[in-house]
Design a protein that fits this description.
63% helix, 434 Repressor (Amino-terminal Domain), mainly alpha, globular
Length: 126
């Protein structure tokens, strides 16, 4: 008989959902406090959801999706086929993309080469 999950304690999936929630909240450009007001909870509760410390009920997940204008699949990190999608990008990724967007187009390939170089060096160390 398989081990029974403790449904009350958070699971790794809850952290993934929280990261996705944070990513979409940042994309929309609202603070934890603003989202909390829309949902009728404190910003601390939003922090707990985003860190994966507190689990989301289905009803709360639907409210979050409505507020962020995303689907439940998006929040759960699933693609249209019900499979896990690639990891959501975080706020630092959005900042980097924003900075890159404003750069001279001729500099972008140079930065890509630098990023590839760094990536190869990091992989060598592992």
């Amino acid at each position: 008989m398989p081990n029974r999950l403790n449904v009350r304690s958070s699971q790794p999936f809850d952290k993934d959902v929280g990261n996705t929630m944070r990513t979409h909240r940042n994309r929309v450009g609202i603070s934890q406090e603003e989202l909390g007001k829309v949902l009728g909870v404190t910003f601390q509760q939003i922090q707990k959801y985003e860190k994966g410390n507190n689990r989301l009920s289905l009803g709360r997940a639907v409210q979050i999706c409505q507020a962020l204008k995303i689907s439940l699949d998006d929040l759960a990190g699933l693609n249209g086929a019900g499979k896990r999608a690639p990891k959501a990008i975080g706020s630092i990724d959005f900042k980097m993309l924003d900075r890159l967007n404003g750069l001279d187009p001729e500099l972008k390939p140079i930065l890509l080469n630098i990023a590839d170089l760094i990536d190869r060096q990091v992989k060598k160390r592992k």
